[in-house]
Write a structure and sequence with these properties.
Two copies of one chain form a homodimer. Chain A has about 200 residues and is mainly α. Chain A has ten helices and no strands. Chains A and B meet through helix 1, helix 6, helix 9 and helix 10 of A and helix 1, helix 6, helix 9 and helix 10 of B. The structure holds a DNA duplex (30 and 30 nucleotides).
DNA sequence: TTGACAAATAAACGTGCGTTTACTATAATT
DNA sequence: AATTATAGTAAACGCACGTTTATTTGTCAA
């Protein structure tokens, strides 16, 4: 029942993430699950509805994460004093969390790939991709660095510059991440990067 | 004649880069060009042949670039002394060249997007993506840094670590690049990154 | 002027697409 | 026990897919 609906969503995500929305047929999804395509329409009103459900879920997950980590969202008010307790530890915490989420959480991993494939067709998906994986995190780091500079923890620098330089290796790593290979080396590189970065920029 | 064949290739690339190979129909390509789909088969034996022709051209362009910049290829012999004349200037030269190529050359820009969309369906495209945009350039920088460390120009460091840290912002920038927006800010950030990186690591 | 060839057209081919319909089995409710 | 809703099947729908065929148009050498 609800179990089948969930299976459809996850199977569709797997296929969308590998082949792209258009390249996946309703038949593909049904066959992968061992049911007929007619059964699928008991749970979703059409193919696009499955896609939308996946996106809706991710938006919900992302909003939850934004709340937990005080990350910037579209509704985020930049004038508030959310970063009052910001410390250098928050940087490392965010980095590890971000890496783990996008490489170890299977839903997030597949969703990122799906977004990667849909970003050039669809302005809405392009915006979501940016918000979740590119501009969103960079913007968050920027705010963090601005606060830390103001508090005298870091040397005076352009926070945007710092944010891009700090976040870029994490972005590269997430994009290089390959399920089948040995990724431990890259995690170590990221740890070294974080350590060195803090060393270089703290007062 | 040869003009039509070229137009087909470029139009197909535009569509493949936006929607992905499977989502583009032969009709789409023909209509975009104002010809009938039948005419298309005078120049290419089928849809896949167009795709393969695009890939073949890019492989040729990339091989040419590899030769000019002594970048690593699959045939590249790591034991050779190709980096005998390596200098710090080569780093900046490579960075600017890489950025310009992947954002200003329209063929390369579209091809990168196409590869991005095909990388998860096709192991061959995944390999090409890595070779052109991820592992290839990182590997090149790694060799460069190893040579510069050996020559005493840079401080003793893990060259792989340096390569990832140096290349990551370039990779992020290329991925953030948007035709319609103002990208000058990001170019400036990259320049600052390069300058600071050399400053921090030179002996 | 004619013949030959290349380029493009228009229509048709079978196949697979997303979706709908009519029907069946199963489980819960009255 | 009868009824009702739920989850599934199988077949059909019209349409768009990639590709092939037969035919027409335009170009240029003989």
């Amino acid at each position: 029942m609800a179990d089948t609906k969930e299976k459809i969503l996850l199977t569709a995500l797997q296929l969308f993430a590998r082949d792209g929305y258009e390249a996946v047929s309703v038949r593909n999804i049904a066959e992968e699950l061992g049911i007929t395509k007619g059964a699928l329409y008991r749970h979703y009103k059409n193919k696009r509805d499955i896609f939308d459900s996946i996106v809706d879920r991710m938006i919900q997950i992302d909003a939850q994460r934004a709340k937990e980590f005080q990350m910037p969202t579209e509704q985020y008010d930049k004038m508030s004093d959310s970063y009052a307790n910001t410390s250098l530890e928050d940087i490392e915490k965010f980095t590890i969390e971000q890496l783990k989420f996008w490489t170890e959480d299977s839903f997030a991993l597949l969703f990122r790939r799906m977004l990667t494939l849909e970003q050039y067709r669809n302005a809405e998906m392009a915006e979501l991709y940016s918000q979740c994986i590119v501009e969103g995190p960079v913007s968050y780091m920027e705010d963090l660095f601005r606060e830390l500079t103001k508090k005298g923890v870091l040397k005076e620098e352009n926070p945007r510059q710092l944010a891009v330089e700090y976040y870029a290796p994490l972005f590269l790593l997430v994009n290089m991440f390959d399920n089948n290979r040995e990724n431990e080396e890259y995690v170590q590189i990221l740890r070294n990067h974080t350590k060195r970065f803090i060393q270089n920029h703290k007062k």
